[in-house]
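Hello,

Following up on my earlier ticket. Below are the three sequence lines again, exactly as submitted.
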Amino acid sequence: MIIVERKSLEALEEMTKDCGRLLVLGCETCSAMCLAGGRRQVAELASAIRMERKMSQNQDEVIEDAIARQCESEFIDHVKDRVAGCDAVLSLACGAGVQTMAHTFPDVLILPAVDTKFIGSEAERGVWKEMCMACGDCVLGRTAGICPVTRCAKGLLNGACGGASEGKCEVGKERPCAWQEIYHALKRLNMLHYLKEKPQVKNWPVHPGKVVREDLREGEATTGD
Amino acid sequence: MQDNTTNIKHNDYPPCKAACPILTDAREYVQLIAERRHEEAFASIRKLNPLPSVCGRICTHPCEAACRRGQVDEPIAIATLKRFACDGSWKDQYRGALPAKPSGHKVAVVGSGPAGMAAAHDLALLGHDVTILEALPILGGMLRVGVPAYRLPKDVLDEEIRAILALGIEAKTGVRLGEDIKLAELFEQGYKAVFLAIGAHKDRKLGIPGEDALAGVVSAVSFLREVNQEQNPKVGDKVAVIGGGNTAVDSARSARRLGANEVHMVYRRTLEEMPAAQQEIEDAVREGVQTSYLTSPLEILGKDGKVTGLKCIKNELGEPDASGRRSPKPVPGSEFSLDVDMVIAAIGQVPDSSFIAEEIEVTDRRKQIIVDGAYTLVTTQPGVFAGGDAVTGPATVVEAISAGKRAAISIDLYLRGEPFPSSESAEAKKPAMLSSSLIDKTRKFPRCGKQGIPINQRLKGFDEVDAVLSEDLATKEALRCLHCYMGAQVDREKCVSCLTCVRVCPLGIPATSKMGEITIDPFACQACGMCALECPVRAIEINLHSRGELAQQVEESAGSNQDGAILGFFDYHGDFGAGDVTSLRENHPSITPLFLFGLRRIDTSHLLTAFECGADGVLLATCRPDADPFPGETDRLKRRVNDARSVLDFLGLDGDRLQVVDMPERGLFDEGQITEVMKTITELGPSPLR
Amino acid sequence: MSLREALASGKFVITAEVAPGKGTEVEHLLEDAAVIKERVDAVNVTDLQSSVMRLGSMAFSHLLTEIGVDPVFQVTCRDRNCLALQSDLLSAWALGIKNVLALTGDHPVLGDHPKARPVFELDSVSLLDVIGKLNSGVDMVGNELKGTPDFLAGAVVNPGADNEAAMDLQIMKMESKIEAGAKFFQTQGVYDLDAFEKFMKRIEGLDTKVLVGIILLKSVGMARFMNKNVSGVFVPEPFVQEIKAAEDKAQASKDIAVRLIKGMKDLCDGVHIMALGWESKIPAILDEVGI
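Thanks for your patience. The regenerated structure is below:
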């Protein structure tokens, strides 16, 4: 899932201080799952902003709500009246949610309350790790299910750089060398020969990315660039 | 089975409530005692049960057998807590419901035992004009003449009967139905319905030689009747009591009190099959009663018309009989004699229905009044209802009360010309079992059950043997409750399967399905509150201190105090009494106390809300880890407090307005610590958000 | 004799290494190079070594050609995408640079611009592959070149990998590099003769030339730093004590280097001396070794 992390209160205060009537809006899929953007976090954040405003004699109201996903117009529809009644929305959604909201409400300022970090998973309670950077050209089949693009600090495709010591990456002692992990995993699968194939070079996609599925599209088929 | 009033399925009841014939909400009053709300605890019991103090003493408490705590260590001492709730002076404050508008219908209740009393009480509340007819000169039925005073003091019974009669019920004593007045005559006198609750006051015969011919052979019912009317019946020096029920034990213990030096209880099976309450048997043994198990009487021996002994034979247990108990089989050649000069026969009672047998249908052998369906208690004759021991044979007080209450419902429906409720039989529900891992993870706390007076003092007379619990002990005992079915419920609509509940549950209860559906076993959950609190999308609600309820309390409390508002959270698990709460309010009026089952359920947002509503400070008094059922969760609370503090610091409100203290070993707070905390908060001045 | 010729001749090849500094000052470095010019077959020029922003490798390599030194142009994949790398390689050839050492490069986080965006679009292996393509007259995607370079491509290998996985990965990668066109290898600094001998045994049969790396130990502090921070380099304690006890540290350092080169010269094809500013001491070392 997409992992997000809330911005500091200082940053959020700066961002919202002059924005008028504010809706703090949770996003209850990825953001909620990484315990950054559900109703619970909305309540805390809204409370802090309300107190801040009260203390600085700011009369503008702060209201709160949450929807299932801010990246889907059907869900956004449920709060359109509340959004319309506000000058700004502080969105606890990932970048996709914030942008979908901004696209849906061009007259309302949509502000991001969280930093979208990566596609990852929860390693333990309170620890999320990056697992995928959506490079668009998955190599996991050759690397025993460990992504070198994401988990090797250099994103190398043709083996270890040699900078690791004691199995840890040169960029930090807390990071395992992904290539040594891949080595062990491939060895276990008896697939070490994958490392001896001809040099791999990544195909980098053009951003912004777009996936077009003609079999699913409605209306006239296009090339979808 | 459906509860008529609430339509809640039986399955959703906590096991203690489901086990009670009158569906007493034991969980509710146990919790109220834990909350030091004893008056409400009493009200909770009394609203359903017109004989609460009686039940607090002699109920066989099936609730305890069902209690889930019993699977972990020992059940909550529910009966003892009921006694506590019913013995305090707070019960004088109780104002029961007033009778409904008079219906104009006259109802006769025949018999003033628990069934009759309960029926009379409920019928009176429903607005009917109730008259009780009692054959004996005194009211109370078996409670009066069957149960000895050392178990149920007479004044306790008097008081409860008085309260029932105060609803405007007329009681006529010394009136025996069938003898002094015929059933038909009652209808002629304008009674529209009659409830027969005549009990089972006739002892069954032993059917052995010597039973009728010798002086010194008595029936338990007549013996106890004399005992209970303070006629001090003469007892022998050595007494044999035949039988294994509560009547037998009552007879044996009474005989000891009346001077018998040796009392033998002769029972044909073993202790395991004995129908008397375990506690009673233990008490009897402690009081010097001897037991002869696997022994059947063959003949009462006598000389000069007086009992000189009891010839017995030893048994062994054979195949299970119809009742499921293994039936005793005599061992040939094992005859022996007990040297006794008195024999009390206590092998069971039957209703004394001979007086009314011509007017109402009874069973052939046991002479029990026949009813059509255990639920409606309708007899073969229109307008006549019957219940209690007269229908079932000797049973427990709470079953009798239950019958009385059901009769009241049926009679009311009958009088109003409405159909009777469906009398589908309640399907016996298998008690849910906790997994061994859950039992391992559940913290054990020792039970504080009955507190008895010393044995040497007991035998001096008929003073009550059990003492009432102190408030300290009662609350401590009540705090052992596992809050069955008050725990977490997942709202499937809202749940996003984030697994937070799975990760935070200290008992490992939430389960996941392949497709991500989370389920929380409502029986296993102990309502610790962690999942409901940590759930990011608030898809989990909990009955014990729901999040919304807590938020509302915080809002109201934080905004209410004019003297500088400090919100004080205290844990019910601390060792304090109602008096400590009073003195907190007196000595520290600026602290508005809020009590919780575990402070761990306070969320960062609750803390922030308090300040948003203008609190100058928030004080969190955590209970000592040794009293906390979930001591491992205090750490999470402290981290949330740190979070809230950092928000306060960021706002310039100062995180020091939020203080955590430990509750002392005894009492609500440590004066020195509170003073210091108050000083810190006061020095920060009034909150700018006030 | 150029490096290519030296390698082809079968002689014991000697290379050294210079690191351009931060700024435009190059005279000092050229002087250092001049000192050893007659004694070495080539001089490597590092490419923003340790991810510290410095003067570029290509420019200094070119300056070396002007004073008659055959440079080894070190190219890392850290800072350039495939367009820039190919372009720089062509440029280098145009500036008279004939030897390239292809490296992956350190992560920027280790250097003085830790927030810099790392590129690593190619790595050492794919870079060698690209060099091979350029040498064959096409670019990476197969477009023909007008004018074709003929680089002698080399790579690095670290014989001191600290665990079996790392060592296996090193050797597999070494094979890939040879496959991709690496004609020679310069190793990370080696202090452990036994480990090196074992390493050379493992790669027996690989068709390539190995120049063992010698880092002059300048101080105890440097030894400790490398042990702690430089992957695959381990200075055994006796060497540390030797430096510590010596009155003349430089002499002790020289002595150690001499012993190491003597010990390893029959195991491999040459030596790559990383003097780290002590280039002036190289001739004396070589004298003592007798090469």
